[in-house]
Amino acid sequence: MRISYNGHPFDLVFDTGNVKSDLGSKFAQTFPDVLEGLAEQTTSRGGFGGISQTQAVVLPEFRFEAAGSTVTLYDTEVIQNTESGSQLFSGSLGADFVLSFKRLVINYQNMFVRGE
Question: Rounded to two decimals, what is the model's pTM?
Answer without folding.
Answer: 0.86
